[in-house]
Design brief:
This protein has about 475 residues and is of the alpha/beta class. Helix content is about 40%, strand content about 15%. It binds pyridoxal-5'-phosphate.
């Protein structure tokens, strides 16, 4: 169902589910929240869940399961080898993607580890529409480099372009011409490009990438972790797909690819991952590494209960009434924030609502991590946990200088079926207040900085006493209210 129209004329997203199990939340007072974020080194990844009101860090592994997923977990077949649970998982994936071979892995990055170990070598170049943190780290670890070939529109904050995740085909052709196809073991296309605002790719674009790959005998590897929302956008935004079912679109996408991998923490609404492979030759290259790093070929490091839940979750992704729920809540949130003048990524994408920190706190230089500072400020004034997706999420260059991110985003993820509309309204209200008081926010600086994936464990501190000023203003405006 599309947004429902109220008698007042207002349009709101409507939850097409009821809540059957709940978890109690705490909204800690602001005096405590400042202590918690200090203890966490101003890194929202290091906060404790008990100290968070709304956890909008990610939609990874925290989507609410359906009754049918829970029910399926009861019939999981617990055996080390030959579990029936695996065969159900395998056959669901075979029917959705039409690929014969399926390897289980414990999560998305585990798939990336295996694929990179097998195909990437010293000097390899991996073209991508856009990188994801873990995909890039695995390519780099194996001696390769990543070339980002996103269309120019993809990096524009405000846009009405429907498929900002598309790959620039001319850039791809030029890269192959310049570097030679021998250096390029595969092209990686990511659905619902995570780091640039959950922006979708179109089927038309993927078909063009496929054509170039075929002409040059290069594998096409598809990261389907965020495929769910992307399918919805293809259906409503791409003319040639208007009359196709979600299932048909899924199959058409898979038809373009040689290998599809996914994090089932997102696609499938449970916890795990998998690799689907068209050819036996490539399957054989990878399967040995599954047993080495993940587990036997019929569980791949996952609990069989989770595998059952993924199988049902994948089928539910095909449900035309469920698949639009995430995007509709995100759209509502983005539009309401826009009404308050707040810079957000447009058009609204999947995954969550993305604030543009470069504009929100335009006075903070990128070297002082505007998105990280904004994420910390949001937690302090609301108890909401968001995620920095900017320069902190990049890696320093070998000479120690910063890689300034193309975009400085704060992601407010909307895990599926988890938050109600009144909670979403609370988010909108507190962020609108913060925007009015944005000049009080200043930057952060590292106090401890790991070399790899520093955004997970890095610790920072404010460059001045700006958090105190922020708290003072909050108390003036809200009094005793939390
Ligand atoms: C989350 C994600 C991954 C990694 O998956 P994990 O299960 O977290 O390891 C890979 N690619 C994309 C696009 C993702 O969003």
């Amino acid at each position: 169902m599309d947004h429902i129209k109220l008698f007042s004329g207002e349009k709101i997203p409507l939850e097409m589910h009821k809540v059957m199990i709940v978890q109690k939340l705490a909204l800690q007072p602001i005096e405590k929240r400042i202590d918690f974020i200090k203890d966490a080194g101003f890194n929202t990844f290091l906060l404790r869940n008990r100290d968070i009101f709304m956890d909008m860090l990610t939609d990874s592994g925290v989507n609410a399961m359906s009754d049918k997923q829970q029910a399926a977990m009861f019939i999981a077949d617990d055996s080390y080898a030959g579990s029936e649970t695996f065969y159900r998982f395998e056959s669901k994936l075979q029917s959705l993607f039409g690929m014969k071979y399926v390897l289980p892995a414990h999560q998305g990055r585990a798939c990336e580890n295996i694929i990179s170990q097998v195909f990437v070598e010293e000097g390899s170049i991996i073209p991508m529409n856009y990188h994801f943190t873990t995909s890039k780290a695995h390519v780099t670890l194996n001696g390769g480099t990543v070339e980002e070939l996103i269309i120019d529109e993809g990096l524009k904050v405000s846009s009405s372009f429907p498929f900002k995740g598309n790959m620039d085909i001319e850039k791809l052709k030029k890269l192959i011409e310049r570097e030679g196809r021998e250096k390029i073991p595969f092209v990686r296309v990511e659905a619902g490009t995570n780091l640039i605002g959950g922006q979708p790719i179109s089927l038309g674009n993927l078909r063009e990438v496929q054509k170039v790959c075929q002409e040059n005998d290069i594998l096409l590897v598809f990261d389907a972790s965020l495929l769910g929302d992307n399918l919805h956008f293809i259906k409503i935004r791409e003319e040639q797909c208007k009359n196709m079912s979600i299932r048909e679109i899924t199959k058409k996408i898979a038809d373009c690819c040689d290998i599809i991998y996914f994090s089932a923490r997102k696609l499938g609404c449970a916890r795990g991952g998998g690799i689907c492979i068209r050819d036996k030759e490539n399957y054989d290259k990878m399967k040995g590494l599954i047993t080495l790093y993940e587990g036997f070929l019929t569980y791949g490091g996952m609990s069989v209960r989770e595998i059952e839940a993924i199988t049902v979750g994948l089928e539910e992704t095909m449900d035309e009434e469920i698949i639009n729920q995430g995007p509709q809540f995100i759209e509502y949130m983005c539009h309401e924030l826009q009404k308050a003048g707040i810079p957000v990524i447009t058009p609204p994408g999947g995954l969550g609502c993305h604030l543009d920190a470069k504009q929100f706190v335009s006075h903070i230089p990128q070297e002082q991590y505007p998105a990280g500072a904004l994420a910390a400020a949001i937690y302090i004034i609301s108890g909401i946990r968001s995620m920095e997706r900017g320069t902190i999420s990049e890696q320093r260059k070998p000479d120690g200088t910063e890689t300034l991110a193309n975009m400085e985003l704060v992601r407010l993820a909307l895990p599926r079926r988890v938050f109600t509309l009144s909670q979403v309204k609370y988010v909108i209200d507190r962020i609108s207040w913060l925007y009015q008081n944005r000049n009080l926010i200043e930057g952060l600086t590292f106090t401890s900085e790991p070399e790899v994936l520093r955004f997970f464990f890095g610790r920072l501190k404010p460059v001045s006493n700006w958090t105190e000023k922020l708290i003072k203003k909050f108390k003036q405006d809200f009094g005793d209210s939390l």
